[in-house]
Amino acid sequence: MSFRVAASLALLLTAAAPSASAMTMLVAGDQMVLSGPVHNGDGQRFRELLAASPAVRTVILRDSPGGDATVGYEIGEHIRQKGLRTALSGYCRSSCSRMFLGGVERGFTDEQRPGRTYVAFHGNYEESGQLMTRMVPILQRWIVTHSDGKADPALVERWTTLPERTAFAYFFDSERLRRRDRVSIFLCDGSESRINRYEQCEKIAGRTGYDLGIFTPMPLVKVNPDLAFDPSTANDRDD
Q1: What is the pTM of this model?
Q2: What does the pLDDT read at residue 228?
Q3: Which CATH number does the domain housing residue 63 bear?
Q4: In the predicted model, is pLDDT for residue 27 greater than 80?
Q5: Which pLDDT score is estimated for 7?
Q6: Per-residue pLDDT averaged across 141-150, rounded?
Q7: Are 19 and 46 members of one domain?
Q8: Same-domain status, 93 and 145
Q9: Is the Cβ–Cβ distance between 74 and 82 less than 8 Å?
């Protein structure tokens, strides 16, 4: 895949020019934003952009529905190897969650409201939508390892074997969600309506993403103004 770095000295802004089917990757100062679907070739683009941007310390995952599972692992591992932290802005599902868990610190930005900002996990699936059972043990080990050994194996077992790829385990920031029932983890089988899914999904009470090593305590990330979220261009489909 072709790669191009466009730099603005005035804004210290760097962009990896995506193809029609690729993640958007932008850098300003010590931050990189990754957004959109994950496709084959995005791992190589990420490594090249990061190599060209040695000041980057924080990778922000913004509104990504996931996609290519291998690329998710690849970027997550590279983030961990480089000692970078990750932060959420909006939703980060499926292979995007692998990228998020790559961070040595894992938290949130202040860009989007807490009820719309989450990381969502499930298994690996064939193009047909069938669960790839042979990948389940690999994914489970990867999650436990990258949660610094804190993820509950029994809960990980449940979400990595969800039979439908529209099913997810959703993790919100328990420090900011402010629900009366104090629940911040939801296990959904994919049949729930978008409007009511957080009432219809199974609530995992008494646990938080911090307890399970999905998140680590860190201040909210203030996004560089040159990378600021533009609500008018957002894809609001977070289901």
Answers
A1: 0.90
A2: 93
A3: 3.30.750
A4: yes
A5: 29
A6: 97
A7: yes
A8: no
A9: no
Helix axes 69-81, 136-146, angle to 10 degrees: 30
Q: Which two tokens stand for residue 116?
A: 């719309």
CA–CA dist 148, 153 (Å, integer): 12
Residue 197: pLDDT band (50, 70, 90) is: confident
| CA geometry: angle 110, 210, 103, nearest 5 deg | 65
Express each pLDDT in 69-103 by its tens digit: 999 999 999 999 999 999 999 999 999 999 999 99
Q: Give the structural domain span for 20.
A: 1-112
Gyration radius of the chain's alpha carbons: 17
123: in domain: no
Which range (50-59, 80-89, 152-161, 225-234) has the least confidence? 225-234
4 with 106, same domain: the answer is: yes
pLDDT of 65 above 90: yes
